[in-house]
Each structure stands twice: as structure tokens, then as C-alpha cells.
Specification:
This protein is mainly α. It contains 18 helices and no strands. The longest helix has 32 residues.
């Protein structure tokens, strides 16, 4: 098997084949392994690291900043990697991103040996920031390659990939909490870091190379469009909410309900399991019926807001906190984020093509970088601002603020879609026409040649 496949030429006439070739299946496995291994390493911190950092002299605000610095580096990395993905090479970017992330995960497990106070805090910032650059490289190339190799099924394939992202989020917290309780601080990072390292040669072997010409378009031209601004704000609110939960939920659950780190990891299943299950279904529906993307985004945003309002619950509801209510609202948030996030990426791609952007890896990398940048910006603001609000007010008020931001994003997008119905119809007709042309041109040609 030769992984050096000319994907550029084949993807131009790509369309759903009756059955996937071996190379297609291996490509999906490769990308799924990246999503799964990266997210399981990212999510193990939630159940125990905030409490461990407090023992090392960090405040709640500093813990939020440690989580937030990951997002800042991810933001910068996403923009740079997205801009230069063609020059660097999508496959090389992905593999090196995995290698850097695995090394940093192992190094993070050694930080308990660092002296408490400023030294520990500084090392946390440094290692997390470098780790984020590796993660940005891997995720940017994964998103771009998904859209390039499967141009007519972006949401479907992305939904399947996000199922593995959700699986990583599902297994990360309980495994991290259990390993921490059983073996101490270092073992979770060592085991999962080595697991991520194994993914490097695996992906080097099976992942196809993607060749393309650099795009002449810019981030700022795309970001100047009203629809893109609103979608990016919605991306920001979703990731902000998740980042807020990463930094604050474990401490809230431990203090409010007297739970151990292991049980906190199980509670987080309420967030990640619905997301894992719903993502492939949402991807399939929005690929088959592109006109539903807008209302999935709006409805999901409103449901996300409701989930955060009731998570505490918000003090103005005058409802006491209950463990069952917390788990239920985490499930609502996980379900609604799947409804909202999956259609966003293909929605941005479709709009970019409508505005005359070149259909190639350069544009896909730019869109992937833009999406990743705003996701990372939210992942910075969520734990940072949420940590400050939690420290000075309460978790309940901080969750209510996250809900208000999500509700604003859903409302603004709903107004936009109502005011531009003709644009939505034209987009749907154009996508259907492209699908018909692709099927006619590629009726007997597989998406990826053996």
C-alpha cells in the first residue's frame, strides 16, 4: 500500500461511493485516532488537576489561566498553521503535532516534582502552551484534510470524527481520576502520553499525503463577512462554556456534593456521552439536508443556554443545587453542543466558496484555522473569566453568564437567517447542483484510489 496518494486530483471529482475503499477506511481510522488520542490526553486534567494546583500554591484564578493559556497558544497556532498548511504539508503538520503533544503530556506528569509556588505555575504555563501548539497543528490539518478528501460528506465524516472526540472526552476524566486515585499524579500523564506517542508512527504509515497550491485569500477578508462573524461568535460561546467547565466544575462538585475525583470523572460522562452519540447523526442529517444546518445551529445554541442557566442553577431561579440536575444539564449541554458545532464547519466552507474563495486545501486550511482560532479564544476566555467570576461570586453566577452569551449568539444567528432566507435557498440549490455534478463525474471512480 502506497500512502502517497494524489488526493488533489481525485478529490476534485469526489462523491459518495457505493462502498469505501481500503484507503478511505484507513484515512478515517487515522483521523479518528488523532481525535481520540488528543482529546483523551487533553481531558484527563479535569477531575484532579485544579485541586492539585491549589495544593501547589495556585489560586482559582491562576488555575483558570493555566487552562486558558492552552487556548491562547492554540489560537495563535491555529491561525499560523491554517495559513501555511500547504507550505508545511498537512500530513507532516499532523504527525509533528502528535509528537509534540505526546512529549508535553509526559512532561506535564513530572510537574509534581517541581517546587510549589511560582516555579510550578511557570512550568505549567510553559508546558501547556507548547502542548497547545502541537494540538493546533494536529487538529487544523485533520479538519482541512477531512474537507479535502471527503468534500461532499464533510459534516458526516466530521460527525464521525467528533464521535471519537467525544469518546476521548468520555474516557479521559474517569480514567484520569481513577489512575490519579490509584497511582498518583504522574501515572495518568505517562500512560496517556505514551499512548499518544504510539499514534505517531501509526499515522505516518497509513495517512495519505495531500498536495495543493497555496491560497491567495486571507483570514481577514473572510472574517469581514457578517455571517462568518456571527458563526465565529457562536463557536466562541460553545468553546467558552466547555473551557469554563474544565476549570471549575470539578471543584464545584467536590465542594457542593463532597465527591471524589473519580466520581467527578463519572459526572463528566453526562457531558461527553451525549455529544459522542449525537455527532454522527447530526453530521449525516446536515449533509443530506444542508438547509437544516442553520436551524440546528440556532436551536442548539438556545439549548446550550438553557443547560448553563440550569447547571447551577442560576441564582435568580431560586432553585437549590441537586446532583441529578447537574448531571441532566450536563447532558443537555453535551447534546446541544453537538447540534451546534457539527454544522458550523461545513457552513463556513460553503459560504467561503459562495464568496469566490478557491476550492482547495489552502482555503480549507484557512477555514480550519479560523474555526480553531475562535474555538481556542473561547477556551481561553471561558476558564479565565469563569474562574474570576467563580472566585469572586459563585459557580452558579459564572454558569449563568455562559448561558447568557450562548443565548445571545443563538438569537443573533436566528435574526440573520430570518432576514436572509433567499441566501439560504440559493446555498441549498448550489450545493444540490454540485452534488449532482460530482455524482455524474465520479459514478464509477472511488474517492481514494488503492
Amino acid at each position: 500500500m502506497d500512502p502517497e496518494v494524489d488526493v488533489e486530483q481525485i478529490a476534485e471529482t469526489a462523491a459518495p461511493a457505493p462502498r469505501m475503499t481500503r484507503q478511505q477506511i484507513l484515512t478515517i481510522i487515522s483521523m479518528a485516532s488523532v481525535n481520540f488520542s488528543s482529546m483523551i490526553c487533553y481531558s484527563i486534567l479535569g477531575p484532579f488537576f485544579p485541586n492539585e494546583a491549589l495544593k501547589k500554591g495556585a489560586s482559582q484564578t491562576i488555575v483558570g489561566l493555566i487552562f486558558g493559556c492552552y487556548a491562547v497558544s492554540n489560537l495563535i497556532g491555529s491561525l499560523v498553521m491554517g495559513k501555511y498548511i500547504v507550505q508545511i504539508g498537512a500530513k507532516f503538520m499532523l504527525v509533528m503535532g502528535l509528537f509534540v503533544s505526546s512529549a508535553c503530556t509526559i512532561m506535564f506528569g513530572l510537574l509534581d516534582r517541581v517546587p510549589s509556588g511560582a516555579t510550578f505555575i511557570s512550568m505549567c504555563f510553559i508546558v501547556r502552551s507548547i502542548d497547545a501548539l502541537g494540538f493546533a497543528a494536529a487538529m487544523t490539518s485533520t479538519f482541512a484534510m477531512t474537507a479535502k478528501i471527503f468534500p461532499n460528506n464533510v459534516a458526516t465524516i466530521l460527525g464521525c470524527m467528533e464521535a471519537f472526540t467525544g469518546l476521548g472526552l468520555i474516557l479521559g476524566p474517569p480514567l484520569g481520576g481513577w489512575f490519579y486515585q490509584s497511582f498518583g499524579y504522574e501515572v495518568p500523564f505517562m500512560i496517556l502520553g505514551c499512548f499518544l506517542l504510539i499514534m505517531v508512527p501509526f499515522n505516518m504509515y497509513i495517512l495519505p499525503s495531500v498536495e495543493a497550491d497555496p491560497s491567495k485569500d486571507s483570514f481577514f477578508g473572510l472574517l469581514g463577512k457578517g455571517k462568518i462573524i456571527l458563526i465565529c461568535y457562536a463557536v466562541f460561546t460553545l468553546s467558552g462554556g466547555l473551557g469554563f467547565l474544565d476549570a471549575t466544575l470539578s471543584l464545584f462538585a467536590m465542594e457542593k456534593f463532597k465527591l471524589s475525583a473519580g466520581y467527578v470523572g463519572l459526572i463528566l460522562l453526562g457531558l461527553s456521552l451525549p455529544y459522542c452519540l449525537v455527532s454522527p447523526l447530526i453530521g449525516y442529517i446536515t449533509d443530506k439536508y444542508p438547509s437544516t444546518r442553520s436551524w440546528f445551529i440556532v436551536t442548539g445554541g438556545a439549548a446550550t443556554a438553557f443547560g448553563f442557566f440550569m447547571l447551577g442553577p442560576a441564582p435568580f431561579f431560586h432553585i437549590s443545587s441537586q446532583l441529578w440536575l447537574l448531571v441532566l444539564m450536563l447532558s443537555v449541554v453535551g447534546l446541544s453542543i453537538g447540534m451546534t458545532a457539527i454544522p458550523m464547519f461545513p457552513e463556513i466552507i460553503s459560504y467561503a466558496y459562495e464568496q469566490g474563495y478557491e476550492e482547495g486545501l489552502g482555503t480549507l486550511g484557512m477555514v480550519s484555522g479560523l474555526f480553531g482560532a475562535f474555538w481556542s479564544f473561547g477556551m481561553f476566555c471561558g476558564p479565565t473569566v469563569g474562574g474570576v467570576i467563580t472566585q469572586h461570586l459563585s459557580f452558579e453566577w459564572a454558569a449563568a453568564v455562559q448561558g447568557g452569551m450562548a443565548l445571545l449568539g443563538a438569537f443573533l444567528l436566528a435574526v440573520y437567517y430570518v432576514c436572509h432566507p433567499q441566501q439560504q435557498q440559493q446555498q441549498q440549490q448550489q450545493q444540490q447542483s454540485v452534488r449532482k455534478d460530482s455524482r455524474a463525474a465520479d459514478e464509477r471512480t472511488p474517492l481514494l484510489a488503492e
